[in-house]
Amino acid sequence: MALEAGKGLSSQSSSSRMGFAPLPLRRRKSLGVSNGSRVTMMAADVVDKPKKGSKEIAKDTLLTPRFYTTDFDEMERMFNTEMNKNLNEAEFEALAAEFKTDYNQVHFVRNPEFKAAAEKLQGPLRQIFVEFLERSCTAEFSGFLLYKELGRRLKKTNPVVAEIFTLMSRDEARHAGFLNKGLSDFNLALDLGFLTKARKYTFFKPQFIFYATYLSEKIGYWRYITIYRHLKTNPEYQCYPIFKYFENWCQDENRHGDFFSALLKAQPQFLNDWQAKLWSRFFCLSVYVTMYLNDVQRTAFYEGIGLDTRKFDMHVIIETNKTTARIFPAVLDVENPVFQEKLENLVTLNKKLIAIGESKAPEALKSLQKVPVITSFVTELLAMYLMRPVDSGSLDFVDVEPQVVY
Ligand SMILES: [Fe+2]
Ligand SMILES: [Fe+2]
Fold this sequence. Notes:
- Belongs to the AcsF family.
- Pfam families: Rubrerythrin.
- Keywords: Chlorophyll biosynthesis, Iron, Metal-binding, NADP, Oxidoreductase, Photosynthesis.
- Pathway: Porphyrin-containing compound metabolism; chlorophyll biosynthesis.
- It is a single chain.
- The protein contains 13 helices and 6 strands.
- The protein has helices at residues 72-78, 89-101, 113-120, 124-153, 159-184, 192-198, 206-233, 246-265, 274-296, 299-304, 309-324, 337-358, 363-386; strands spanning 25-27, 67-69, 188-190, 201-203, 330-331, 390-391.
- The strands form 3 sheets. The chain has a two-stranded antiparallel sheet. A two-stranded parallel sheet has the order 2-4. It has a two-stranded antiparallel sheet with strand order 5-6.
- Helix 2 runs parallel beside helix 5.
- The longest helix is centred in the middle third of the chain and has 30 residues, at 124-153.
- The structure holds fe (ii) ion (2 copies).
- One fe (ii) ion (FE2) binds at residues 1, 140, 143, 171-172, 175, 252-253.
- The site of one fe (ii) ion (FE2) has 9 residues, from helix 7 and helix 8.
């Protein structure tokens, strides 16, 4: 899964001015072990409390990366080849073969540059980096948990699809492990075993898992590749070596997205009617707005690596939207200047909500103060949702091949 899949809108933790939402970080040593291809992540290593020395888990907010669960019985029915004749087994077998090739088997190998670079990062930028690693690790780990469970549950019904999920969970474990190892450069580690148990799981029915995960993988691809290309052209901002790994890393996310594209095609009911169009637009809006609100609150991070946050986000949104238009039956008109104007209005309203949340006023008064702001927020969102959409991909659009850059 990608950097920040995210879901939902609104305010967030008051733990710092940056709005950081710290997770159960502990001083050294990580659960995720990243050592080239042999990365393992012990999801079953469940504990009652964060390991000794960990920070308390922070309050979850609507903008923190989420953990998902779904209706696994419905998933089993959907991938039963007897029941679903739309399953293109040859396509899934080809995808499975590609995943088995494991292009990035030896990609995620660390070197001494990491620790040295982390030591040079001091002051506010250091804290921002820690938060970036923390959030990214959580998002990747969330993908690992979901895919691993899907791999397990679909084994009997559809071994090929199950195998792909398991291989994708391998990739996500590797990504999360690599990020967690990055935290060790800052003498911290995420207690992933605790996180597995302590986090609330958001339930999405399979249809919504497909939309949300497809978008999350593709947006992750565009985020990684954009940062990678930017730092390649502007090496003076290359302040931590993890970004050098993004070129191959993002190809994993791209492949994951292509797999979800194949899954969606096998469920034409999710793509071919007016409800599918409405849901597609809803998920696009939800994912884009969440990312924008999250990132604008963290401009220091993007500026720290020489990016203009808003330009970066708009580029990612536009490109993701173009990619998504190949498969979703409708997408948003994100290139319309009104869309960005409204995004900015949401930023202002979100700031107001945070300020109210952080004020010392009594809770009842705060709730009252929030009402008009939330009303405006919802009105803006609705206006964005109702903007004339862009009709896009359909099942007739057969040119949705995995885009492998090797
Ligand atoms: Fe990933
Ligand atoms: Fe992924």
